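Quick one:
INPUT:
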């Protein structure tokens, strides 16, 4: 039997490439899924529907009520919550002085506040059971100061800091908290911008020694690894999946 069989997992941003890849890997190991995204059309396009072993919710997780509703759904449908993957995100990538109050708030809401509220909602259930695996999806650009990423890095850097604080606070309850920090990932957006000749794309690729973007599965495999019971002695870590763009 797979080590994760019978567990229940929440994956946020489930319609995104990393979210889809993570959910399908967990599903292949007989994990019950609770999947959320803010975009109903994207959820439909990804093929996520309520059914046996899968519950879905369209919600704004940057708001406390959305996070609370998602955790309540997991407990109602499956009676437990073992794994939380905080993958919801999506920043406005542009030079800092071209950011507006609206884009700055959107970047912080999508990345940091979704993570804060989901952890705040999920941790009581994990504490009660004395077990949990929280995996946040951060960003390798926090380490290398990538061009035009200042606002995005502020949001993801906050997530990295939340990771270490929660990891220490909940270690004795066998709840681990880690972050997977990818470099550029091959998404439809990256493919479109590459085809359009966006000069930023080349600059992003140039800092990666492997000279390519990561595949979503390459990021998801690290997320699932950290979600396993045998990863219980790994906590408070930021694990880069970056093709060598930052080392040590």
């Amino acid at each position: 039997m797979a080590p994760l069989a019978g567990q229940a997992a929440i994956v946020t941003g489930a319609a995104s490439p990393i979210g889809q890849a993570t959910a399908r890997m967990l599903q292949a190991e007989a994990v019950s899924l609770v999947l959320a995204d803010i975009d109903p059309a994207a959820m439909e396009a990804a093929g996520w529907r309520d059914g046996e072993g899968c519950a879905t919710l369209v919600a704004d997780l940057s708001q406390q009520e959305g996070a609370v509703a998602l955790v309540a759904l997991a407990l109602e449908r499956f009676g437990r919550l073992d794994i939380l993957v905080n993958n919801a995100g999506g920043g406005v990538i542009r030079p800092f002085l071209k950011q507006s109050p609206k884009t700055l708030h959107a970047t912080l809401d999508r990345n940091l506040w979704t993570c804060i509220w989901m952890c705040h909602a999920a941790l009581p259930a994990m504490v009660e059971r004395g077990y949990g695996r929280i995996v946040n999806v951060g960003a390798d650009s926090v380490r290398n100061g990538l061009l035009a990423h200042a606002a995005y890095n502020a949001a993801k850097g906050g997530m990295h800091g939340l990771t270490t604080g929660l990891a220490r606070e909940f270690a004795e309850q066998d709840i681990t908290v880690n972050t997977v920090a990818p470099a550029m990932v091959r998404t439809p957006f990256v493919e479109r911008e590459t085809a359009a000749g966006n000069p930023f794309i080349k600059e992003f690729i140039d800092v990666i020694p492997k000279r390519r973007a990561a595949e979503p599965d390459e990021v998801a495999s690290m997320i699932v690894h950290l979600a396993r019971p045998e990863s219980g002695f790994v906590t408070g870590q930021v694990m880069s999946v970056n093709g060598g763009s930052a080392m040590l």
